[in-house]
Specification:
368 residues, alpha+beta, Four Helix Bundle (Hemerythrin (Met), subunit A), 3 domains, 5-stranded antiparallel beta sheet, 3-stranded antiparallel beta sheet, 12 helices, globular
Length: 368
Amino acid sequence: MHNISPQRIEQIDYELIARGIPLILRPLKAFHETSGKSGGQGSIALEAFDEIADWYAQKYGSKALWDGTIGVQPLVIRGMVYFAKIPFIEKSTVLRVTDQIEGITEDVARSLTEDEIKYLCMVCEEAFGDFGALYNLQTFPDLLSQEQWELVGRAGLDLKGAIAVLKDAEDTQNAAFLSQQAAEKYLKAALLSYGLAPQFLKGKIGHNLRKASDELIRRHSKFRYLERAVAAAQLPSMDIRYTEMRCSSPDAVTVFCASRHICGFIAEQWQLDAQRGAPDTEFESGKYYRDYAGRTFRCITVESRGDGSRWARMALLGHDAVLFKVDAVVSLSADFGYFYVPVTDPKAIVDLEARYNSVVAPSLKSEG
């Protein structure tokens, strides 16, 4: 069992129970404890985790089994709040969005308009990206310090708690408060990466998301991306914990979505920073890049426009769209390099070059 005895797992489990770690999180925590800080890599690590998961399943039964859901997203449909389970997906898959929504009747599902379906798909797709980054972060325990992991762990429980109180008690105020708390913890964990002292975070920033965001922007301009989400997640007053305040169901859902996106962006950036060894990527013509979702691109040109902005013309190469491969040419702000990682593997570059020359380059030549 990779030198991990059942007795050792049981000892770790007792320690996790004493720390108040929820059952559903304990298999991964036990894996980190037994496999060291790095958590291992590849099939050996997966085998070790599977054995630990089996131990938990044998001791606790179905309560310890993961249902394949990486998050739950609240949705407002015709004034009612519904909850969509966001599934773990390893490759492009076709799903009917209404199949993921708990409690929606067939009559309501069939009556949804095209615009309503588009809205649901957009929200669930955004939630999939954010929850996916939060889920993947847990597999890289060496990315963060112990203090950061404590904040991140509590933030994850805040998001789960927000869903629970909104679903079970219809407590919109507490749902909004817990959502904002998750965003606050991730922003503070991000600031710890830049060496800010915990005392500064408590005294100078407190519960003010805008102050935390401004401090991050001073460290790197990429955090301007979060400004709109920060504005939406910031509660007007922390008195929402104690007194009755105006907070409708759509208000609570808005705060949850904004907070989830703040957490997801920071989790994604931590992982991308580790992969590229830098907080950003500078696009270069003729170079290849990969985004967090695994899509690959060739930078065709980087151009400056009259207003001073810089834009990158990018070729999307061989994106798997379930039934066929997609190649396309898109333009995006060159300031968004922080969403990408340079492709450095020689074999991958050769394959991408061949795809570009056979599919995209001829069409560009015919245009020109």
